[in-house]
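Quick one, tokens below:
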């Protein structure tokens, strides 16, 4: 651990220090910028820094001095690169969208600003939210390069909220916003050792987010603790969330997932042992996956992409206006994978599009019934499961190893899904998931209780002397320390280097 990777104080502690004027918001922004300069050449999590961040912080300091503090006043936050930010690059990882930043904020960014948060910058992601190709490389985008896992700099950060998770893990900011369709918040959180919270579908607005599926897409939170995520969600929704329930007396169902790696199952077993020792009752539950329903859900997802993507592109100046135009414009761009998902979405017929809504309703009802029956049949409050296999080595030639995860059932149900850091396997973090309750207030209270038995979250050991000069990656490639970003796009010069969900895609 170094000064640049030391965990941040909790949001509650930072808020108290700001209110007592022991810290200024400008101090927190400077700390973020220093950490980005020192650490991000190794991790490549940050796609753009907002030149207006210091000005935002000064406004927060004036409000704090005047006694007009809002819930997240002065708290620095990073935002995923598929979430529109006014005047600041939002590219969904595509070089085609870097030249003309959005002219308005996404709805969730508007909520962040209204709550007093300071948007410090944007984070890299799996290009197009990992919907460009089934062979996509997690954490790689043509605009931002490859994001690396802070715990093992030749390993994947998973995706698609790769940069948001890696940035929080590496201490670049105390809080980040990601998005999830199926696994895109919880999987990178799991493999980088941070808390990832995907709320129920519809709790947070999706306007101004580059879409995949309006039926599944949602913003989510990456943070150092469940308490920090709860504070963020409370600020965004205007509703306070309850604190943790006592572990003693909890009755939970444990599901090992399907064909998860032994490392993930081992960490789950350790968590169950710790829960039992703390007074919880943990009983096995089974979620029997229906391959037919999962295939229908994937077909619906593919059919939903084109109309939603074209609606978004129509509002972006200089962007290809249609999916066909996007495919043609992307074709000459160098990438370690193709556009097979784009092409499959383009080939969807009118009949298939009409059928998609029926398939979506069927998949949602199946997933909700599956979870309801599991909870009521075993008389448990929630399901506890391994979130994902541990991180795998990045391979731009052979492609990603198909890691397993447990994100699809809660994703299809539109229900909350929380992952908490539960331990290490060979120095790689593994998270444990909590899902089942339909509302975030119930699921997060249980997840916070589970978090208490898992011990402190792992902190990456990135070494001393991080700010001394160019950083060397495990393969010998050097990445220059970033300089002041362009005022037009806000982005750093990027490295040009180049998991299998259960049913749907992330």
């Amino acid at each position: 651990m170094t000064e640049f990777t030391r965990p941040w104080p909790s949001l509650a502690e930072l808020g108290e220090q700001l209110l007592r004027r022991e810290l200024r918001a400008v101090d927190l922004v400077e700390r973020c910028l220093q950490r980005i300069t020192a650490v991000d050449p190794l991790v490549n999590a940050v796609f753009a820094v907002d030149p207006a961040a210091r000005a935002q912080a000064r406004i927060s300091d004036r409000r704090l001095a005047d006694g007009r503090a809002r819930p997240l006043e002065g708290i620095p936050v990073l935002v995923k690169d598929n979430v529109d930010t006014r005047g600041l690059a939002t590219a969904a990882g595509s070089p085609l969208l870097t030249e003309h930043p959005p002219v308005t904020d996404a709805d969730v960014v508007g909520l962040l600003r209204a709550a007093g948060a300071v948007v410090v910058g944007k984070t890299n992601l799996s290009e197009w939210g990992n919907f460009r190709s089934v062979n996509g490389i997690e954490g790689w985008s043509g605009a931002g390069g490859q994001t690396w896992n802070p715990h093992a700099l030749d390993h994947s950060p998973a995706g698609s909220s790769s940069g948001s998770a890696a940035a929080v893990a590496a201490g670049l900011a105390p809080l980040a916003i990601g998005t999830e369709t199926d696994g895109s918040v919880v999987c990178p959180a799991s493999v980088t050792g941070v808390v990832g919270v995907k709320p129920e579908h519809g709790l947070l607005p999706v306007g101004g987010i580059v879409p995949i599926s309006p039926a599944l897409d949602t913003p989510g939170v990456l943070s150092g603790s469940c308490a920090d995520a709860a504070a963020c969600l409370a600020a965004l929704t205007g509703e306070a969330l309850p604190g943790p329930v006592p572990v003693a007396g909890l009755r939970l169902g444990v599901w090992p997932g399907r064909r998860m790696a032994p490392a993930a199952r081992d960490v789950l077993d350790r968590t169950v042992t710790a829960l039992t020792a703390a007074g919880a009752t943990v009983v096995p539950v089974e979620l029997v996956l229906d391959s037919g329903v999962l295939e229908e859900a994937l077909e619906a997802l593919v059919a939903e992409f084109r109309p939603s993507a074209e609606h978004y592109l129509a509002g972006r100046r200089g962007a290809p206006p249609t999916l066909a135009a996007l495919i043609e414009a992307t074709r000459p761009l160098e990438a370690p994978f193709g556009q097979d998902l784009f092409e499959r979405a383009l080939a969807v017929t009118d009949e298939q599009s009409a059928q998609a809504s029926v398939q979506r309703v069927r998949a949602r009802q199946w997933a909700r019934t599956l979870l309801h029956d599991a909870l009521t049949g075993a008389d448990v409050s929630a399901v506890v499961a391994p979130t994902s296999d541990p991180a795998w080595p990045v391979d731009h030639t052979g492609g990603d190893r198909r890691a397993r995860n447990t994100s699809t059932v809660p994703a299809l149900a539109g229900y909350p899904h929380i992952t908490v850091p539960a331990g290490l396997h060979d120095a790689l973090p593994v998270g444990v998931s909590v899902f089942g309750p339909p509302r975030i207030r119930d699921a997060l209270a249980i997840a916070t209780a589970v978090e208490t038995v898992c011990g402190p979250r792992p902190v990456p050991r990135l070494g001393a002397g991080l700010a001394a000069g160019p950083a060397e990656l495990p393969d010998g490639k050097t990445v220059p320390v970033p300089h002041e970003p362009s005022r037009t796009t806000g982005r750093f010069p990027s490295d040009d280097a180049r998991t299998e969900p259960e049913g749907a895609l992330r």
